Amino acid sequence: YWIMQKSATPWSFLEPYRGSAFQGLWPTIPEMFRITCSRFPDKRAFTAFDPYPMALSWSEVREAALRAAACLWAQGVRRGDRVVLTGKNSPEWAIAYLAALEAGAIVVPLYHQLGAEEMEALIRFVEAAALFADEEKFDLLSGCGVKVRIGLSRSQPDYILNLPASKQRSAERPGELDTAAILFTSGTTGNPKGVMLSHRNLVADCYLSQANLNVYPSDVFYALLPLHHSYTMTAVFLICVSIGAELVFGQKMASKHILEDLRRGGITMFLGVPMLFNRLLVAIRKGIREKGLVVFALIRFLMMASGLVKKLTRANPGKKMFGFILKKASLQNIRICIAGGGPLPASTFRQFNQLGIDFVQGYGLTETSPIVALNPVERYKVSSVGKLIPQVEVRILEPDAEGRGEIAVRGPVVMQGYYRNEAATREAFTAEGWLKTGDVGYLDREGYLYLTGRKKSVIVTEGGKNVYPEEIEDRFQLSPEIEQILVRGYLADRKRKSEGIEALIYPSAEHFAEIGIRLEDRERVRSRLQAVVEEVNRGLLPYQRIERFTVLEQPMEMTTTKKIKRFKVDSASAP
Fold this sequence. Notes:
The protein is built from 18 helices and 25 strands. By secondary structure, the protein is an alpha/beta fold. A 13-stranded mixed β-sheet has the order 2-1-10-9-11-12-13-14-15-20-19-17-16, with helices on both faces. A 4-stranded parallel β-sheet has the order 4-3-5-6. Helix 1 (29-39) packs across helix 7. The longest helix has 21 residues, at 293-313. The protein is globular, with a radius of gyration of 24 Å.
């Protein structure tokens, strides 16, 4: 009943609803939501363990969203009005999102850790007609001028799940081409801009990405990263809405809480950022190594054999062979892990697959809703960020001799533009309408995409070689001694305007504590890091090698997807 029947496309089941439940090329998000609720009314939809247990069926989610939408409508919120949503990951957050769209409004999700002053400025900028907020920000935003305010925490008087029932419904339903969400993103380069995504952008991305990845209503997804970010919003939350899968909401990034959620929730689809999976793999390897060198060597040999069998035959012996390891790491129920939001080391990708977990990675950005490419489980390529999803085109602008150039994207997932910023919108597109991503990479003949780095961060060496810092940083992702590393250029020769390569390193306090070295013992810490840098340098081409490094005393600021904010580092006084 819950397993989709094989069909021409993963979205073929929508055809019986065309002309009745929806009229356009794709349903709007409210229409997609209604279809799912009609298909699986009693199936569990949203689950939370913290701060209090909660489990809601799709019919219960639908009822709560309609009550909240009626409340918005009764208080004057109309089609096209902006509704701001901020709070930790929770069923209430998701219900508020659906309610705003059900009322015909545009939802504006804001990161709950933004300061009240910055958040208030964005609320005024979009001229918000309503606000959903949890108890952490509700009172702090009392002076932002928004009259319609609904709470996301049980302790609040206008709690979203306690709103009265109402027969009043919005008379103005959103259209497929209407803006559904405005997502503010600064990424690693600063200057926040409001990315406008239509219902068609988001819904098309939900379904088209499923051509490269089989997901089912029986799957259980895990919302760990902040839901305001396009990655979790589309690839976790809206994917669940599109097919009726269950969504478990996580709130804490601490390993103990994550592993407990994975176990209690029976998670089958685990989406995260590379840093999260790298740390998990390091912990798994550490546990194996503690059993002794002989056992470690044997398991590593078996892992390589398992990976080879999987690659050649598509059988998956690792799931049974290493079941005891997966159970200890609370990964026994995981069907697929997906890494996004940054580059993933090929070794991490390979070792998870060897252990029996289908591990894939994808590529995209907020401006593309976000998924552009996703590695098919059945035919993945370790060094690729994925195969282009249907109806999405990629062009490589001004490719060099090796075919590398700026990646440009065109298709139904590409944004409408930046909110109230025509200049930035014009700058983002080519004259032919291709979105310039700012990422450098290349395509192979089978439509698989490969990333090299960011165009803005390229280092030009004395020999005229282009070096992409991300390629070097990737080599350090599984180094337990290093918590953060940022590779950048420095002016080595003013006359020739050539750059050398340096690294800023923030050491792992946890690792050095385990080996009995205090971070205050700078000479010993630096000596260990020097050895790590030299080992990586030996595997690099001469012009890519790190010439100097600085050990930082404080961590570098990061984005919500755990990427270092390069613009913050470059503008700071770091050596």
